[in-house]
Design a protein that fits this description.
By secondary structure, this protein is of the alpha+beta class. Helices cover about 40% and strands about 15% of the residues. The protein has one domain. The longest helix is centred in the C-terminal third of the chain and has 18 residues.
Length: about 220
C-alpha cells in the first residue's frame, strides 16, 4: 500500500499495469526508474533526459560502476483483476544488472529524429504510438506489462509490440518517430537473441554506403 499510494515516487503506471520498485537498502535507482520511464513532469520537462544521460555515464565497458551495483533490487508488476489485483510479473535482480538492461533498451530504440523530438522516448509515448488515436485507454491489454518486463529483464520485446506498431503505420499511413524506434528495436533484439553470432543490425540512421541488395531494395 505504501508503494502504491498516490504520488508514490516508486510506482510506475502505464496502461492497465502498475509496477513498483524497491531495493534491499536505499538506492537512487528506486525512484530513478520511474523518472526514466514515466512521462516528463510539466514543471521539469528535462528530468527524464538528465536521468537517462546520467545512467549512460554510469556504464563503462558494458558494466555499471555505481557503488550500489550489487544491491538487490525488486520489481513487482500488478494488474487489476475484477475487484482484486493480480501479479503480472515479479523480478529479483541487482541495481547494476538493471542499469545495464535499461541502457540496452535505449540503445536498441535509438534512431534519427527531428530536432524538437525527445532524445529518449518515455515508455508511455512508445506504447501510445501503437494505440488507436494515441490514447492510453486503447493500448492493447497486457502490452504495457509485457513490454516493461522485457525491458527490465533484457529479453526480446513481445511480438505483439512490433505487430501493433506496424498495424498503426498501415492504418494511419504514417511512420512516426516512436513507431520507427519500436520497429528497429524489436527487429534488432529478435535477431540478436535468435542468432547471437549475427553482428549486423539496423543502424541509427540511413547508411548510404550499404551495398547489400536487400538494404537497397528496402530503400527503394
Amino acid at each position: 500500500n505504501h508503494l502504491l499510494r498516490k504520488g508514490s515516487s516508486q510506482r510506475l503506471q502505464v496502461g492497465d499495469s502498475s509496477t513498483v520498485f524497491w531495493a534491499e537498502k536505499r538506492a537512487d535507482m528506486e525512484t530513478s526508474v520511474v523518472d526514466i520511464f514515466g512521462e516528463p513532469k510539466k514543471d521539469d520537462p528535462d528530468r527524464q533526459t538528465r536521468k537517462v544521460t546520467a545512467l549512460f555515464k554510469s556504464i563503462h565497458h558494458g558494466r555499471y560502476v555505481g557503488g550500489d551495483a550489487d544491491t538487490r533490487f525488486f520489481i513487482l508488476g500488478l494488474a487489476p483483476n475484477a475487484a482484486r489485483i493480480s501479479v503480472r510479473f515479479w523480478q529479483v535482480t541487482t541495481v547494476g544488472e538493471l542499469a545495464g538492461h535499461i541502457v540496452r533498451h535505449f540503445e536498441d530504440i535509438r534512431i534519427v529524429h527531428g530536432g524538437r523530438q525527445p532524445e529518449y522516448l518515455p515508455l508511455f509515448r512508445l506504447l501510445a504510438s501503437t494505440a488507436v488515436q494515441g490514447k492510453a485507454d486503447n493500448i492493447p491489454p497486457n502490452l504495457a506489462g509485457d513490454t516493461l518486463s522485457a525491458i527490465l529483464e533484457g529479453r526480446p520485446y513481445p511480438l505483439t509490440l512490433v505487430a501493433a506498431a506496424v498495424q498503426r503505420c498501415r492504418a494511419e499511413r504514417e511512420i512516426t518517430y516512436p513507431r520507427a524506434a519500436l520497429i528497429k528495436g524489436c527487429l534488432n533484439r529478435a535477431t540478436r537473441y535468435s542468432n547471437p553470432d549475427q553482428k549486423e543490425e539496423l543502424t541509427v540512421s540511413l547508411d548510404p554506403d550499404n551495398t547489400n541488395p536487400g538494404y537497397r531494395l528496402g530503400r527503394l
